[in-house]
Design a protein that fits this description.
The chain is an all-alpha fold. The protein is built from four helices and no strands. Helix 2 packs across helix 3. It is elongated, with a radius of gyration of 18 Å.
C-alpha cells in the first residue's frame, strides 16, 4: 500500500473517531473487547479441544492476566 494512501486513510479514521460521541466510542471499545475475548476463547478451544465451557473460560482468562494475578484471583485452579 502506498504510504500516502495509508497516511490519508489514517487521518480519515482519526477524524472519524474524533467526531464520535463518548457513548459511541465506548460502544466500539466494548465490541472490540468482546471480539478479543471470542478470538482468545477460540484459540483456547483449538489448543485444548477436550475442555468444557467453564475450563475454556478460565483458559481464556489466563490469556489476559499475568500468571501471578490469575493465581491470586483463582487460587484453587491450575
Amino acid at each position: 500500500m502506498d504510504m500516502e494512501v495509508a497516511s490519508a486513510a489514517d487521518k480519515m479514521q482519526i477524524e472519524f473517531y474524533r467526531g464520535l460521541s463518548g457513548e459511541a466510542k465506548l460502544k466500539i471499545i466494548s465490541e472490540l473487547n468482546e471480539l478479543c475475548k471470542s478470538i482468545a476463547a477460540a484459540g483456547a478451544r483449538s489448543a485444548h479441544p477436550g475442555l468444557n465451557d467453564e475450563q475454556i473460560r478460565h483458559e481464556t482468562i489466563k490469556r489476559f492476566l499475568p500468571a501471578d494475578l490469575y493465581q491470586k484471583a483463582y487460587p484453587n485452579l491450575p
